[in-house]
Hints:
The chain is mainly alpha-helical. Strands 4-3-5-6-7 form a five-stranded parallel β-sheet, with helices on both faces. A two-stranded antiparallel sheet has the order 1-2. α12 runs parallel beside α14 (262-275). The model is unreliable at 1-11, 22-47 and 749-753 (pLDDT under 50).
Amino acid sequence: MFHVKHSSTNSTPKNVPRGTFSGRQFRFVFTLLLGLSSISLAQDEPPAPAPINTATIANPTVRAALEMPRNTPADFLATVTALIDLGEPELAAQVFGELAQQKLTAAQQAELVREVGPAALQKLLNTPELSAAAAPFVEAAFAAANKMATDPARLEKLIEALGSQQEQTRYEAFAALRSSGEFAIPALLDAIAKTDDEAQQNRLREVLIGIGKMATPSLVAALDSPSESVRRQAAYALGQLREVRAVGRLGALAVSEPANSVAGVAAHWAYQHLTGKPADSREVIVALDREIQATLNCLPPNRPTGDGLIVLPIDAKGKTIALPPAEAGIVYAAHLSRLRSKLDPSDEAALRRALVLSLESQAIFAAREINTSLAEELQPATMPTAELSQSLHEALSGNYHGAAEVLVDLLGARRDVAALYPTGGNVSPLVAALSSPASRVRFAALKAVMEIHPASVFPGANRVPPLLADFARGNVGQRAVVAYPNTVRAADIAGLLAASGLAGQATNNGFEAVRLAAEPGVELVIIDLATIEPPIRETIFRLRRQAASSNLPIALVASEGRLEEAQRIADDHCNVLAFPRPHSAESVASIVEQLRKAAPLGSATAEDRTAQAAQAVKWIADILANGPEFYDLRSRPGEVLSAVEQTGDLTQLLKLLVQLGTPASQQQLLEIASQSAAPIADRQAAAKAFSESVKSHGLRITTGSLLAQYDRYNASENSDEATQKVLADILDTIELQRREANANAQIPTTNDQ
Length: 753
């Protein structure tokens, strides 16, 4: 609300229905906005501090500032800010002390914000000599102003006053609503929908135009309103505001509405007013495609807020959400894509794009616990497997991890083995998802393959065993790449990442940073502006060009003198944030925290990794017990065992060691059973598991291992009875197996007889 720059003039183009205010120079009577004629100082306050003796001030400009009349709070604040600008913060603090002694009412506080603007109050917070004392005062003033601006009863009265027979009353209501800025927008749109009075609707539209570009996002969203009156007024307003980014939306409305409807007429006028030519379906499709691509290339649909977020309306009533620029672009592009697909339903590529972007938007909203059903109208659940697979290919190609995860789940739920076989290329999109840079997508693809449970080998099946082992390890070692021109400093920063649960990999070379960022498990990149080979812009371009790092959050750090340069480079890319060089563990942790907030969808949390590890171990056990054999897990005992060992689940580990039945697995059972420091119950369980393995797979240990086990038993004469029994049971198992093997070897065959 408080950042609106009001235009001094406001004209209505020809042929646009006018309201009371069109074509006039507005007279803003702001005192009546709050029902106050003026604000005077409270009379019952303690005596103000002794006045400053201006005669002792040598600088005539400073003296003149101090001698300005101070009758209202705004007068006091004007003097304070003038003194700050003149480099006299101590004198400014004295004058502010006089203002702070006055107990302003909420109405007075709100009027002060309106009269002087938020920048003047913010200046107090940015001045060290005043910031501590001014903080409560400024906070209270902003809170009062916001409360006043958003008061529904007040807004309702002001909207009603727009229809007054008294011109002065109408002007005053207009001024008050306009000064309420974004807070008034939902009420204005709602009022348009509720009234049949066209003149009043036009007045309400003119208020929206008076609010300016801040109203644009809500006006664009209002083009989808179920109210034809709202659609009409929104179209006229966007044309009058000359909002060129709305051309595609206006064109879509123009060609989809009946030509003689009031909304259609308004949309046609606005489109022609902005483009100079009538709305045509083919031209509108081109305009929408152009805007979709621009938005996906990180050209934000709206101006970012002070904290770098983009505010987007969620519905046509003005409800909004603030998103990072990349996510806001996807949400907006998804809406444009759905409009585009309706204009030409025969374009299968456009339908797939609409589906993928809608699913990605749905995932973005779900991450913020906002329930939506953006993709339902596109009916992905009823699509043929081949069409879903093609959509998955597009999601993977665009690194839309949220959409890819949903599409993978849909394919897995069908248990259609056709999803595992390619129609082009080396592997199917589902199998390609096993190598996605997003761990949640990789796991979803692994789950889908397990659900399909193919009976025969498929292209890319060799990707499954190492991925099972990777997830069984819990994806340990989440990593970050650190690139600095100085290797020692890079290593120092990499070491500080451990406090954030990251293993840092240091380099002083941009090419190496790009290579490292392509490896699995990389969560983020920290790169110094001065990193060489190649220059920093080329390095970031390479990071963004390769699929594995295209969406990774990147911190671009710079020395104090080059921070603005780093910010300019960061502004040219999605998910690149500029920071001053960190010099402490706290500053490194702060960078990591901000990068994690910018992490793309599909990044696994610690809780995700724990659950994924447990499930992967179960899948390994099931494959070992029931197949399919073509995964050949027994030829990878090292990978399987190292993964399961890290889960810390001894029962599961022993079970898998029995199922593996390899020399290495039997040897590991012997090692666990023979550990003198281990709890006796664990050793007994391992000895029992060894016996089960020998019964199922035969004795697989080497002669050296067998002799070593006898040596262990002989050396246990001074051990406790339980230990001696465990070692004796192992030897009993070995000797029984050897006797049975010898007996079987002596039975003559039929041919021998």
